[in-house]
Amino acid sequence: MTRPQGVRRVAVVAASPVSMFNLAIPELLFTKVEVDGDPGYEVVICAPEPGPVSTTGGLDLYVRHGLDAVREADTVLVAGTGQRYVPDPRTVAAVREAAAAGKRVASICSGAFVLAEAGLLDGRPVTTYWELAEELRKRYPALDLKGDVLYVHDGQIMTSSGYAAGIDLCLHIIRTDYGAAVANQVARLALVAPVRPGGQTQFTQTPLPPERGTFCADTRGWAMRNLDKPLTLTELARHAGVSVRTLTRRFHAESGVSPLQWLLHQRIERAKELLETTTLPMDRIAGACGLGTADSLRGHLVRRTGLTPSAYRAQFTRIGTTAPAETSSAA
Question: For residue 203, is it within any domain?
């Protein structure tokens, strides 16, 4: 199989019986990535044997490619079944070989069992679908199970929890490869939640939990439109028409974090987009995001991504001109 120059190939392994939802997530999101008008990814769905693959919904999918696709991929992603199953030894061997060759290996849901069977998760922080977490821990006691996160990124290995958490994982991969602006654009095109926290550092990622409720939705939208302002808890509560105590309680129930934690995350995400898509100097970007000064922007970005603003811009700029140099205090 040939591919255009510069296009990253993702081999998605369908573990039988595969969840059609888990299988559809990478195909949907990766194929929406465009960089300068060209596709960013080529997605190849494969199985141990080309032909019909059973699904958890009782249907059969016809998969054209075998595991040769794994050897030709940059990223290998095992789409799980969403239920208990015994990993196919051929898939296990192919995934082990891919990791040994330095390829990025990821899993959605119960796909983590394939990675664990291949010996890739020993001593690593990992996650999987919460209903299968205890079984994964018992079957593979050498791994470090993180049951309360959506996905985990540890070196070349990534694992996600079940079902919709695969969306967060794929958006994280896109952001890792092409930056926050591209990943957020894909999220908008797919009508899913914006990218959760992440970046280039190779350690466990603990993203924001999914939002559960709409009581604070209008206030969240208002805050997003006013990120350049020094918003306080009192101002957020006034907009929501409730007390600070009620806002904090309802906000945490819906978002899993406090209002100010959520607000800081949104400010950093906006800063990353501006670094990628504009030549604004660092103090202007800090002001536009409500982070105050260039030094404050630098501190937050280094803690979140491991990169200084200048390094982040150099790696992920989506513009054709050279960005202005930073001062030494903000580099």
Answer: no
Q: CB–CB of 136/127 below 8 Å?
A: no
Residue-wise pLDDT for 56-114, tens only, equals 888 899 999 999 999 999 999 999 887 777 899 999 999 999 999 999 999 999 999 99
Whether the CB-CB separation of 228 and 287 falls below 8 Å is answered with yes
Residues 159 and 77 in one domain: yes
Domain span at 299: 211-331
- The yes-or-no verdict on residue 117 having pLDDT over 70 is yes
Q: Answer yes or no: is 154 within a domain.
A: yes
pLDDT at 320 over 50: no
Residue 137: CATH number of its domain: 3.40.50.880
Q: Helix or strand or coil: residue 312? A: helix
Angle at 61 between CA 58 and CA 63, to 5 degrees: 150
Let me know: does 162 contact 130? Beta carbons within 8 Å.
yes
166 three-class SS: helix
Round to whole Å and give the CA distance between 99 and 96. Answer: 5
User: Could you tell me if 98 and 225 lie in one domain?
Assistant: no
Query: What are the tens digits of pLDDT across the range 138-162?
Result: 999 999 998 778 889 999 999 999 8
Residue 162 counted as domain residue: yes
